[in-house]
Amino acid sequence: MQFLILAAGKPSLGYAKEGVELYLNRLRPFGKTELKLVRDGSSQDVSKRLLAASEGCLRIAMDERGELWTTRKLVDQAKDWQMHSVRRIAFLIGASDGHTEELRSRCNHILSLSKFTLQHELALVVLLEQLYRCHTILAGTPYHR
Q1: What is the separation of C-alpha 70 from the centre of its chain, rounded to a whole number of angstroms?
Q2: pTM for the predicted model, two decimal places
Q3: Contact criterion met (CB below 8 Å) for 38 and 46
Protein backbone atom coordinates (compact mmCIF):
# COMPACT_ATOMS: atom_id res chain seq x y z
CA MET A 1 0.00 0.00 0.00
CA GLN A 2 1.36 3.40 -0.99
CA PHE A 3 0.29 6.84 0.16
CA LEU A 4 0.45 9.49 -2.55
CA ILE A 5 0.04 13.10 -1.50
CA LEU A 6 -0.90 15.41 -4.34
CA ALA A 7 -0.71 19.10 -3.51
CA ALA A 8 -1.17 22.29 -5.49
CA GLY A 9 1.93 24.42 -5.73
CA LYS A 10 5.36 24.14 -4.20
CA PRO A 11 5.57 25.09 -0.51
CA SER A 12 7.09 28.57 -0.25
CA LEU A 13 6.84 29.34 3.46
CA GLY A 14 9.94 28.48 5.47
CA TYR A 15 8.20 26.43 8.14
CA ALA A 16 6.34 24.43 5.48
CA LYS A 17 9.49 23.66 3.49
CA GLU A 18 11.22 22.48 6.67
CA GLY A 19 8.23 20.46 7.86
CA VAL A 20 7.71 18.78 4.50
CA GLU A 21 11.39 17.87 4.28
CA LEU A 22 11.46 16.62 7.88
CA TYR A 23 8.47 14.31 7.52
CA LEU A 24 9.36 13.07 4.05
CA ASN A 25 12.78 12.09 5.45
CA ARG A 26 11.14 10.37 8.43
CA LEU A 27 8.76 8.53 6.10
CA ARG A 28 11.52 7.38 3.74
CA PRO A 29 12.44 4.22 5.73
CA PHE A 30 8.82 3.07 5.44
CA GLY A 31 9.08 3.50 1.65
CA LYS A 32 5.39 4.00 1.18
CA THR A 33 4.77 7.73 0.88
CA GLU A 34 5.30 9.99 -2.11
CA LEU A 35 4.65 13.70 -2.55
CA LYS A 36 3.82 15.04 -5.99
CA LEU A 37 3.16 18.70 -6.61
CA VAL A 38 0.80 19.87 -9.33
CA ARG A 39 0.89 23.32 -10.86
CA ASP A 40 -1.12 25.85 -8.88
CA GLY A 41 -3.94 27.85 -10.42
CA SER A 42 -7.70 28.20 -10.22
CA SER A 43 -9.79 25.65 -8.34
CA GLN A 44 -11.08 24.32 -11.68
CA ASP A 45 -7.61 23.84 -13.15
CA VAL A 46 -6.05 22.40 -9.99
CA SER A 47 -8.97 20.01 -9.44
CA LYS A 48 -8.59 18.69 -13.00
CA ARG A 49 -4.86 18.16 -12.47
CA LEU A 50 -5.44 16.44 -9.12
CA LEU A 51 -8.05 14.09 -10.61
CA ALA A 52 -5.77 13.20 -13.52
CA ALA A 53 -2.76 12.60 -11.24
CA SER A 54 -4.81 10.39 -8.88
CA GLU A 55 -6.38 8.18 -11.56
CA GLY A 56 -6.57 4.59 -10.33
CA CYS A 57 -6.10 5.53 -6.67
CA LEU A 58 -8.49 5.52 -3.76
CA ARG A 59 -9.01 9.28 -3.43
CA ILE A 60 -9.25 11.34 -0.27
CA ALA A 61 -9.96 15.06 -0.67
CA MET A 62 -8.56 17.18 2.12
CA ASP A 63 -11.36 19.69 2.68
CA GLU A 64 -12.58 21.76 5.62
CA ARG A 65 -16.09 20.34 5.10
CA GLY A 66 -14.92 16.75 5.45
CA GLU A 67 -15.08 14.18 8.22
CA LEU A 68 -12.85 14.60 11.26
CA TRP A 69 -10.85 11.41 11.79
CA THR A 70 -8.70 10.61 14.78
CA THR A 71 -5.22 9.19 14.34
CA ARG A 72 -6.60 5.83 15.46
CA LYS A 73 -9.30 6.00 12.76
CA LEU A 74 -6.59 6.62 10.14
CA VAL A 75 -4.60 3.63 11.41
CA ASP A 76 -7.70 1.40 11.41
CA GLN A 77 -8.57 2.61 7.92
CA ALA A 78 -5.01 1.86 6.73
CA LYS A 79 -5.30 -1.67 8.15
CA ASP A 80 -8.61 -2.10 6.33
CA TRP A 81 -7.09 -0.87 3.05
CA GLN A 82 -4.23 -3.34 3.49
CA MET A 83 -6.64 -6.21 4.14
CA HIS A 84 -8.61 -5.30 1.01
CA SER A 85 -5.44 -4.99 -1.11
CA VAL A 86 -5.87 -1.30 -1.85
CA ARG A 87 -2.60 -0.44 -3.58
CA ARG A 88 -2.58 3.37 -3.74
CA ILE A 89 -4.30 5.99 -1.63
CA ALA A 90 -4.11 9.58 -2.88
CA PHE A 91 -4.61 12.52 -0.54
CA LEU A 92 -5.59 15.61 -2.54
CA ILE A 93 -4.70 19.07 -1.26
CA GLY A 94 -6.12 21.77 -3.49
CA ALA A 95 -5.42 25.37 -4.28
CA SER A 96 -6.16 28.18 -1.84
CA ASP A 97 -9.77 28.35 -3.07
CA GLY A 98 -10.35 24.66 -2.35
CA HIS A 99 -11.70 21.81 -4.44
CA THR A 100 -14.48 21.84 -7.00
CA GLU A 101 -17.70 19.97 -6.36
CA GLU A 102 -16.76 17.60 -9.20
CA LEU A 103 -13.54 16.62 -7.46
CA ARG A 104 -15.28 16.09 -4.12
CA SER A 105 -17.93 13.92 -5.77
CA ARG A 106 -15.26 11.70 -7.36
CA CYS A 107 -13.44 11.04 -4.08
CA ASN A 108 -13.93 8.03 -1.83
CA HIS A 109 -13.57 10.15 1.31
CA ILE A 110 -13.57 13.81 2.18
CA LEU A 111 -11.39 14.44 5.20
CA SER A 112 -10.78 17.51 7.34
CA LEU A 113 -7.72 17.92 9.52
CA SER A 114 -9.43 20.42 11.81
CA LYS A 115 -12.57 22.46 12.28
CA PHE A 116 -10.30 25.41 11.58
CA THR A 117 -9.65 26.36 7.98
CA LEU A 118 -5.96 25.59 7.45
CA GLN A 119 -3.64 27.27 4.99
CA HIS A 120 -2.81 24.59 2.38
CA GLU A 121 0.93 24.49 3.17
CA LEU A 122 0.17 23.93 6.85
CA ALA A 123 -2.35 21.23 5.93
CA LEU A 124 0.39 19.46 3.96
CA VAL A 125 2.74 19.41 6.97
CA VAL A 126 -0.02 18.22 9.33
CA LEU A 127 -1.03 15.46 6.91
CA LEU A 128 2.57 14.27 6.51
CA GLU A 129 2.99 14.16 10.30
CA GLN A 130 -0.18 12.10 10.67
CA LEU A 131 0.94 9.68 7.95
CA TYR A 132 4.27 9.32 9.74
CA ARG A 133 2.43 8.71 13.01
CA CYS A 134 0.24 6.13 11.27
CA HIS A 135 3.28 4.27 9.92
CA THR A 136 4.98 4.26 13.33
CA ILE A 137 1.86 2.85 14.98
CA LEU A 138 1.59 0.13 12.33
CA ALA A 139 5.29 -0.67 12.81
CA GLY A 140 5.00 -0.68 16.61
CA THR A 141 7.61 2.03 17.18
CA PRO A 142 7.41 4.37 20.21
CA TYR A 143 6.81 7.68 18.34
CA HIS A 144 3.09 7.65 19.07
CA ARG A 145 2.36 8.10 22.75
Answers
A1: 14
A2: 0.94
A3: yes
